[in-house]
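Quick one: structure for this chain?
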Amino acid sequence: MICAIMTAVLCVFAVYGAVRFVLELSLFVCGSDLPAKLGRHTVVFFRNDEEKAEGWIRTLIREKTLDAGAEPEDIIAVDTGSEDDTLRILKNLSAEYDFVHAMSFEDYIRFIKGY
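Got it. Here's what it folds into:
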């Protein structure tokens, strides 16, 4: 039984090591420092959620930043093509909080590629 547990633990570390190796190699080859530029952030995707979007974002703000007493973590709110007022609501929240960034999916793709 202990042998099986040790084997499972070693397999997990091996997979983690392989993933980290590939990530570090790709960063070395591409010369990108994407993780350093982005810093800590949360990305939330919305689609036709005008009734829930504001509540979700305010909950994230409260739980991830204000209640924890931590420095505000960037929240990137991405609208994936809503046909309602979701994007407008997200942009209003973005104007209210400087660490909330609202954008369309197309803008989000450009944002990621910009790094």
